[in-house]
Write a structure and sequence with these properties.
It is a single chain. 62% of the residues lie in helices and 15% in strands. It is α+β, with helices and mostly antiparallel strands. The chain has one domain. It has a two-stranded antiparallel ribbon with strand order 1-2. Helix 2 packs across helix 3. The protein is elongated.
């Protein structure tokens, strides 16, 4: 008769595998959103408000990439940028450059 611990361990291993798969999918969506955002702002300083407004008004590819990554407002974009700032992703990193009336100013740099 198999041990109850072995069955629990097998169930936990399956759950971890599912969660790791979700993480890889989420990471790929976030990487795509970051790359599309960087191309859209062309390495110029931007705010989350301006990026979302631009996506909604003129850049359907950016809007789709952000939505796929779960970013649908300036607040969620700002939080996400704060989370990934200075972390190299796809050869890029985003840095905070200060603030203005719309919130934080962000710029993309090539990761070294």
């Amino acid at each position: 008769m198999p041990c109850a611990c072995a069955a629990r361990l097998a169930a936990l291993e399956q759950r971890v595998a599912r969660l790791e798969g979700r993480q890889r999918t989420r990471d790929a969506l976030h990487e795509r959103a970051l790359v599309v955002l960087a191309a859209s702002v062309r390495h110029l300083t931007f705010t989350a408000v301006s990026a979302i407004a631009h996506a909604q008004q003129a850049d359907p590819e950016l809007l789709a990439a952000l939505r796929a990554a779960g970013v649908d407002s300036p607040r969620t974009l700002g939080r996400w940028l704060r989370t990934v700032q200075r972390t190299p992703i796809a050869g890029l990193r985003v840095e905070r450059q200060g603030t203005n009336g719309d919130g934080a100013l962000w710029v993309f740099r090539t990761a070294s």
